[in-house]
Amino acid sequence: MVLPAPGAPLHAETRDLPAPTAGEVLIRVHACAVCRTDLHLQDGDLPQARYPVVPGHQAVGEVIASGTGVTLAVGTWVGAAWLAWTCGSCEFCRSGRENLCDRAEFHGCQRDGGFATHLLADARYCIPMDPEPGPEATPLLCAGLIGYRSLRMAGDAQVLGIYGFGSAAHLITQVARHQGRRVIAFTTPGDHAAQAFAREVGAAWAGDSDAAAPEPLDAALVFAPVGALVPRALGAVKKGGRVICGGIHMSDIPAFPYALLWGERELRSVANLTRRDGVEFMAIAAEAGVSAHITRYPLERANEALDDLRRGAISGTAVLDC
């Protein structure tokens, strides 16, 4: 499924299968999760994007061919996440922060992604998966990884606020609860279904995002792409607390009084992910027994999946069967 330009719907396109060159693998995609970033791609919010492009950066599949110099064997199951390539030589790559590489390229953004039956990928950036993982594994590759980086930035916070309860939030809530943390969930005002879902996966409290927090927060994770939530989160965390913005795109943060930041509160963002994140999080997710709640769609209904996500009609994650 190809996105020809910003603002356009996806359309089906048939192509010849590419042959992997040195360092590459050809993956037979079995499932790919749908991400809010795919909506930003469709809306033209990502300046680094190229069009036309095949979206999708949470793809799980089987290696069916490989180029020279590849150690992944044919038949290996892998995940293709957001990070598709980095330069390997800049200060960020050399210091273990490849997620900040200025020349980085991403699946479903500059390189064709997983809304397809097959995907060509740099083997070095494929994440090893258990044999024949189900479609429930796909959200771990972005929602889970971004949630994991966000949670890690929150330090040892015991009372954790989460603003925006979608794909990332429902996965990382399960990890936080496994670690003994208390989760306070904030949703779009009046979204009682999302609040019930949050409580179902482990939140101790769930309510409207414009409501006062029921208790002071040690840290807050903001997954909703709504800048106005940042001052609210700052106002809800204790002195010395942290607010972590987990989205790749967010509306402008409105002006707020310095008093909300004072008291050694911190405001940080999460940018992309690293290959090390993938290895670490897959182990943590298995240990915590993380279970993704998914709604499945056939590949040809990718536009419907995107529309449902935009309307907030999905609890958990939409997944395309490819």
The CATH topology of the largest domain corresponds to Quinone Oxidoreductase, Chain A, domain 1
CATH architecture of the largest domain: Alpha-Beta Complex
What shape does the CA trace take?
Answer: globular
Structural Rg: 19 Å
Q: How would you spell out the order of helices and strands?
A: EHEEEHEEEHEHEHEEHEEHEHE
Q: What is the overall number of helices?
A: 8
Quaternary structure classification: single chain
The total beta strand count reads 15
Notes on the protein architecture:
The protein has eight helices and 15 strands. With 322 residues, the protein is an alpha/beta fold. It has two domains: 24-141 and 273-321, Alpha-Beta Complex (Quinone Oxidoreductase, Chain A, domain 1), CATH 3.90.180.10; 144-269, Rossmann fold, CATH 3.40.50. Strands 1, 2, 3, 6, 7, 14 and 15 form a seven-stranded mixed β-sheet that branches. Strands 10-9-8-11-12-13 form a six-stranded parallel β-sheet, with helices on both faces. Helix 4 (167-178) links the parallel strand 8 and strand 9 (182-187). The longest helix has 14 residues, at 275-288.
Compile the SSE list and pairings:
Blueprint: E1 24-33, H1 36-43, E2 59-66, E3 77-80, E4 83-85, H2 91-94, E5 105-106, E6 118-122, E7 126-128, H3 143-153, E8 159-163, H4 167-178, E9 182-187, H5 192-200, E10 205-208, E11 217-222, H6 229-236, E12 237-245, E13 266-269, H7 275-288, E14 294-298, H8 302-310, E15 317-321
Parallel strand pairs: 8-9, 8-11, 9-10, 11-12, 12-13, 14-15
Antiparallel strand pairs: 1-2, 1-6, 1-15, 2-3, 3-7, 4-5
Helix pairs in contact: 3-4, 3-7
